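does this look right to u?? NAP version
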Amino acid sequence: MNALPVQDPNTRTALITGANNGIGLELTRRLLNEGWQVAVLIRSSFPADDDAIASAIRGGRLRIYRAELTDFRQLAEALKQIQAAETAIDVLFNNAGGSLPELRFSPQGREMHYELQTVVPYLIYRETKELLLRGSLKTVVGTSSNAFNFTKTFDPGKLARPERFKALTGAYADTKLALSLWTQALAPAEAADGIRLRSADPGPNNTLRKGKKSGLPFPVNYLMRFVFPPPSSGAGRLYDAAVGPYQDKTGVLINSKGVVELKFADRAQQVLDQVDRIYREEFRQLM
Ligand SMILES: NC(=O)c1ccc[n+]([C@@H]2O[C@H](COP(=O)([O-])OP(=O)(O)OC[C@H]3O[C@@H](n4cnc5c(N)ncnc54)[C@H](OP(=O)(O)O)[C@@H]3O)[C@@H](O)[C@H]2O)c1
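got this back:
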């Protein structure tokens, strides 16, 4: 086996998706402030007026890879660039996501929430695993949600083609649950390679954006605007899930109460089998 390139032990590197807005942007700012190197996989730009971000880009500490993540061709091209240019990843933050105002379908024909929030994080993990093995922390954090707290029925077989749209508690919630479930099912096998995978609920955050239809029910929209804390709060939760008190845990979901039991755990393997099949049968050939 070839010797792996050695990473400077004093430098930590994160790969963050959805890093240019909201919680991901605050997480990017925090890690840069703490001296991390940050690679980001984003589809649109950082705020133009952020001097610290601009200076980190110029200095090479913030490296940008671009893709509309639900388009497998774009995602594969960006992942090839990451594999070619990055030396190691300590923490992968699979953070991109959000609720849509209706059911939409990806270029591959699956419902968008499922593609973006459940399938894509798995594909990114698979294709960055070699880089994670070269990092020192070997950690993956998926951004989950508490939106599925009241979910009563869950059928993994319907995630790709839901029967109807329901704001926040429908496809959005189901596909966040599915992310946490495959994380739990995959963790034991990956522990053999020293990799730890967790999912984390960033809690409520005001990440409303002008002109963007979020698909949030009116009361949640109201709470977001007037009650929820700024996205630095959620960024703190993701940061703690990665390098805080849960560092030795794997497969777990972390929310404001700490490590919590996942509902529908009996379907975790089925969800993992589904995303793994998509990886093997559709995605790997694009790499
Ligand atoms: N805010 C909350 O209260 C809350 C609560 C629980 C969980 N979360 C989760 O936290 C994560 C971050 O969300 P946020 O609240 O910070 O919202 P946000 O400000 O809208 O940020 C979402 C990020 O994901 C990116 N993204 C969305 N769809 C994408 C796609 N198809 N391809 C590439 N990138 C895409 C966005 O890119 P663009 O800038 O190009 O749109 C943006 O960078 C999400 O997974 C969300 O579900 C949020």
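The chain has one domain: 13-286. idk if thats expected tbh
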